[in-house]
Amino acid sequence: MSDAAGARRPYVRSMRGWWRRDPFFARYMLREATSVAVLAYALVLTVGLVRLAQGEAAWNGWLAALRSPWAVLLHLLLFAAMVFHALSWFEIMPKTLPAIFIGGRRLSAATITRSGWAATVLASIALCALAWWWRS
Amino acid sequence: MVDQRTIRMQVLRYHPQRDERPAWQSYTVPFTDDTSILQALLYIKDEIDGTLSFRWSCRMAICGSCGMMINGKPRLACETFLRDLAADAVRIEALAHFPIERDLIVSVGEFVAKLESIKPYLIPKEPRALAAGEYLQTPAQLARYEQFSTCINCMLCYAACPEYGLNTDFTGPGVLALLHRYNADSRDGGRAERMPIVNAEEGVWSCMAVGYCSEVCPKQVDPAHAVNQNKAISAGDYFLHFLKPKHRPP
Description:
Chain A has six helices and two strands; from the N terminus they run H-H-H-H-H-E-E-H. By secondary structure, chain A is mainly α. Chain B is α+β, with helices and mostly antiparallel strands. Helices cover 32% and strands 14% of the residues of chain B. The N and C termini of chain B lie far apart (69 Å). Classes of the chains: A mainly alpha, B alpha+beta.
């Protein structure tokens, strides 16, 4: 028995490049990477706030900078990343909630994901409406 | 025999006393529509190479012994069929993230130790005489934990969890799902004894919410659901101890 134990030499495999091993992992890494887009948005807004504090000229300069083709392109990219970020998080949202029972039936994961999207769409419409109302 | 199809099976071999590192070995195996990977491995062992080592028992996806990486995915060999793996070669490797003992056999000691650590049994709320009869439970109370009770300890979820691969201290999906199974049981009173395992750094907070564990689970236990809802429970437990200092056992 002790001989057999001495013969053990468990081989530990390397984790190098683990996220390339399965498309599921690659998609996970993409989800995590899109959080950089969230950070970028936050930075753009923070700069806007600082420029606002610096006075009208600085604020108008910031608004003009946002209208440049590069800024528009950046925002299109950031928007796409944000949509994917939201998509992947709403996908995993049912895992984070306890099982919800309504009338003795369990609320399906698809319903929870869809309600996340419904809330997003409603909040976006409300925000756009508010911005439009303020503008005029 | 009308059906004479064959397939090339590449198996990652490792002999602890002979090999410095694992290496691929190829076998050509005949198969029919109902040949499972497990049957193909048994064919290799019986007819081609008796030294090939692997674990198996029930042949029907209930013992949880024959988990392995099949074309890179954690699967049970007994319920994976060669007919579904459309390729001229199938690659078989020991379960990822576990040390290889020999060929397709991995070390399970650490997993079993974690399994024992969570007290995977009902801890009664108070002493109860046998004469008091059985515990009663409503279908609604059963539904709170039932899916988490169907785990067969096949460890596929660990092979699907990169966090476990990177840090084997992580308690891991299967064990945390089983912990939740007992904590969510209306008959159980052991929650306070198990919460330190949930709350620990290597407990639910080590989970990065990849979610692949639930994809590969052959029993639809959905360990990612058990682990991630316990993040909220753990956070609640943390804030509760400020309000009720005696909430935690000494």
